Give the backbone structure.
Amino acid sequence: MPSCTEFSDLFQHPVLDEGLSAGADADERRQATMMVRKARNICETCPLLKSCLYDAVVKHDVAGFVAQTTQRQRGEIRRRLGITVVPEDLDTLAGVMSPNRQVDHDEVLRLRRANPDESLETLAHRLGCSLSTVKRHLRRARTDAAGPQPEPTRRPRLDEVVAATQDVLAGSRRPRTAAPAERRVASTAA
């Protein structure tokens, strides 16, 4: 069993998932650095690291700290590889299975615009829903804003994903190779 499942609180911690706020003090930054270091060390020893990385970059738009990367870093890796992962539409499923009221999409967006410095967890609390529901609505808004996507083409190879990840984690500002033509990868249900 991967070690990340034993440390789910660490890998799904809001600091690793959303990053620090702009006004974070030195202690918060130190704590975040220690958390990232611990999570990366756990990932480093995992035999599933490369397959986990590939799935998180190419197949699924996941949240949290996954395969030594943050959600923002995975977005940068995708940009360098020229791919887009289409988020799964969980709104319908959540509505069918949830005994709670539906969360209004426009209300989530309005609250986010009105409170840009609040954590997503705080917004979820205000709305009386889960953190994942808020994230799902914000992802949907980003996807809607992006407009129509190009048709699917080939997926990048594992070595391409690993190379792009190394560049992003090293802080490189230029891709290793010229970015391939835009690729869209439809997410698949597990």
Remarks:
- The chain has ten helices and two strands.
